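Q: Sequence in, structure out?
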Amino acid sequence: PVLPYLVLLNSRSVNVATFHAFRASSPWYTAFKPYMTFMMSRLDARIAVSEPARDFVSQYFHGPYDIVPNGIDVHRFRDVEPFPWAGDGVPRILFVGRYNEPRKGFKYLLRAMPSIQQQFPDARLVVVGGGKPDRFDGLMERYGVRNVDFVGLITPEELPRYYASCDLFCAPSISGESFGIVLLEAMASGRPVVAGDIPGYRSVMTNGKEGLLAPPKDPHALALAIVRLLADAPMRNRLAAAGQETASHYAWPQIASRVLDVYDQALRNSAAPRLTGALG
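A: Exactly. Output:
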């Protein structure tokens, strides 16, 4: 995290910073606010990837922020061939992420599985990402959790196939998300989403439009939302179609154009000396 500040300290160019973080508070910002306020004064423009990200950083550093979301390669997730096992009729729920991190809310999804399996006994949870499955052995034994496939880390080429091979995507995060790239990936793949009802995710999806939002830390609510989608194929199709439309607005060509607009405006507004050709 020191590198951006060293760059700002020595930069003779026009400077644009992008803010991604979101959390309740930041001891780092509080402790180093005087020093960082000086660094912020060297910025010619500020981008926040979402309204929650803007609201978080502006608590400490006031000023104008352009909201430009993250982008995804939409075409990478379209018309992807599923894995052969996807045609066996088993309902599958996909989780993607670092499931060891408490903020991802993975344990609440595990606890939801027995309730889901009361309605869909063969339902399976497919877990993609880094972590230690044995950390959840006690929880799974306590709640009788079964049919969980820990895939581990995969290649970027494999990821779209996992989205294409599952019936829905679940991101049960409880906090700390400024955005929802995995939600957009699922939407671009034509999969409905069940997600934690947190600010970062609400900035990407609307409850009942591209998927369903459930209260954080509530396994029962997660299970109800997932069962509702698994039981209603027309609803899944409707949400999936809306999700693909939403994801199309985050395609990189559109997002990159908006980023360049911010840089162009910064160039026009700045009176700071800069190196010839520094920004292209």
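The first strand starts at residue 16 and ends at 19.
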